Amino acid sequence: MRIMDLNISFFNSGNIDASLWQKEGFNRWASQEFCKQVWYKCLPHIEEQSINVGSISEWDVIGIHVNGASKHMAGSLTKYFREKNPNVLIAVGGPEYFSMNNNLSDLSHFDAVFQGEAEESFTTWLSNVENKKNHSLHKSNKIIGKQMKHISNLPIPSYDDFPLQQYVRKGVYPMETTRGCINHCSFCDNARMWKTFRMKNCHRIRKELINLSSIGAGCISFCDTLLNPSAKRFGDFLNIISEFHFRWDGMIQAKYIDKNIAKTMYKSGCSHIFIGVESFTPSFLKHMNKEKPSINSESVIRILSENGINISIGIIVAAPPFQSDEEFENDLQILKRLAPFLRTIAVSPLCIPKGTPLWCKRNIYGLKGLESSQGWRFWYTNNRLQDLEIRLLRCKRMINQLQQDKINYSNFDEYIKNEMKEAGEFPEI
Ligand code: SF4
Fold first, then answer.
1. Relative to the CA of 188, which ligand 1 atom is closest?
2. Smallest CA separation from ligand 1 atom 6, residue
């Protein structure tokens, strides 16, 4: 098996605008029209990468990792590879197909679509292909996926072929110790995606860290939703990671953190932490079912920062019926006080993905438009475009304040312009 990292190859090429890899670029990649325009710029890099892994006509299977922004690019790649090798089997998986809201007819050009977690099902499918068994067993619906109940027994990941030195954060190795989340925030579709919360045991975590150490890793970025689901678990994790000499970063909730824990985190190599705070205002947090995870955010940010750890946070901006003017102003004031302790802040308008608890309560809150495919972004109560504009302008106000307080932020005006344009073109339902 060989890896082709087309994403980094396109990014490093210099002939595609680098801002397309920032927040405002996501929706452009997700547009079919844009992908058609940019295809000719991508093609030389696809050809170059393909040569590196041998002749396409000899490939048996191609697996494409797809997220929302790359689904049209995956379609174009499939067409391109099939023209070169009509017999190749093409399988897709990744975030775009994770919870499978897609129309099945859109998937007809793939030989297999892996929904959800696929370590086991992909391996079984591949060995069926290799043994010339009936790999099209599931071809009637083409969707194959199986949740892993025990993640401690998964094979140790191989990082061979990933050009980690070319990434923006050079030589940082990703690692997971858990899947899912123990919380149930009302706007979040984590629970629907991962279904249950699972943890790798301490023995397994140590084994994985020993492997990373043996291949010369110096920095690890943990991709867990929360590294501290409980005080006991976080204590165990810190004990294990302290046995090594890594620098590490990851995401935590603002719970189970005090001065001693912050000191231990720093001593264990923790350099940067992201906390999905969302808001500092209890009444707004209540709508999001996030009062308990975020209630101590302000003091936790200070404690961590005072102990040498860089902090980034996520903040959500809404509008009525979830967030009053006073609640928004309160968040602005607290952010002003906290700015000296913060490295970066991700400010996002409230999105309501399909199937989340907030989406299910849409009638109670009087929300409209949520049934449409883009309703999670363009939901409203009264006037569709006006309501969206209020949310975006509040975000802009918050970002302007953060910029005055010397916190870097990429060009949000462009993002607002694109969101309003797309919402205007999107059919009203
Ligand atoms: S803590 Fe984060 S990942 Fe977990 S449910 Fe809440 S928003 Fe989702």
1. 8
2. 185
Q: Is residue 136 in a domain?
A: yes
Distance 27 CA to ligand 1 centre (A): 23
Q: What is the pLDDT of residues 205-254, one digit of tens each?
A: 999 999 999 999 999 999 999 999 999 999 999 999 999 999 999 999 99
Q: Ligand 1: distance of its center to the CA of 324 in Å?
A: 23
pLDDT tens, 273-312? 999 999 999 999 999 999 999 989 999 999 999 999 999 9
The domain that holds 417 is classified in CATH as 3.80.30.20
**Residue listed under structure tokens 């002749």:** 55
Q: Using the mean position of ligand 1's atoms as its centre, give its distance from the Cα of residue 183 in Å.
A: 6
Task: Select from 145, 174, 203 the last residue of a domain.
Answer: 145
- Write out residues with Cβ below 6 Å of ligand 1: 181, 183-185, 188, 190, 225, 253, 276, 293
Contacts 24+ apart (CB under 8 A), 137-140: 138/112, 139/111
- Which atom of ligand 1 is found nearest the CA of 184? 5
Same domain, 227 and 358: yes
User: Are 248 and 188 contained in the same domain?
Assistant: yes
Q: Where are the beta strands (DSSP E) in 171-329?
A: 172-175, 178-179, 198-199, 219-222, 247-252, 270-278, 310-317
pTM: 0.90
Locate the ligand 1 atom nearest the alpha carbon of residue 276 and give its number: 2
- Ligand 1 atom at shortest distance from the alpha carbon of 189: 8
For residues 194 and 229, give the distance between their C-alpha atoms in angstroms, rounded to a whole number. 15
**DSSP assignment letter at 280:** S
Task: Give me the domain span that covers residue 97.
Answer: 6-145
